[in-house]
Amino acid sequence: xxxxxxxxxxxxxxxxxxxxxxxxxxxxxxxxxxxxxxxxxxxxxxxxxxxxxxxxxxxxxxxxxxxxxxxxxxxxxxxxxxxxxxxxxxxxxxxxxxxxxxxxxxxxxxxxxxxxxxxxxxxxxxxxxxxxxxxxxxxxxxxxxxxxxxxxxxxxxxxxxxxxxxxxxxxxxxxxxxxxxxxxxxxxxxxxxx
Length: 194
Description:
Elements: H1 15-88, H2 96-109, E1 113-119, E2 123-124, E3 128-139, H3 141-152, E4 159-167, E5 175-186, H4 187-192
Antiparallel strand pairs: 1-3, 2-3, 3-5, 4-5
InterPro entries: PilO, Transl_elong_EF1B/ribsomal_bS6
Transmembrane segments: 15-38
Organism: Vibrio chaetopteri
């Protein structure tokens, strides 16, 4: 017995071949609809896997930063203490006269004779005022060296720059010493004291 079945006569087929064709169509439809519904989920899964990897990397960076927080906090505290210590070494406006007196006194203590000592014009910088001081004096080489050391040991910052010296005369060991000294003021403090 041979079955010659035409697809356009499906309704006249015997029951079993009809069920087989319907089953095949159903399975194919289920596979296609399943694929179409699963494919976006697979794309979403890939996206979320990438997100997970990225978030893990970000978490590692944050965890390293969190682990370094105590060290960085201690370092910040040290820097803040150092900044405060340096800030305390800058003279306040009311201390400028006594600073000038200290610079003069150090010269006198080291047997030097002042020809000139006066403030130059204030020069604003980023957050500091540069306060130049022009000094001219005479004395021996050793006395001038001790004077420079005494200036460096003052509790306020005084920088000695552009030092020039020459003998007063060819026969004399006395030197004429000309120097530009500089100290600084914190701008906010200088403006607050005006």
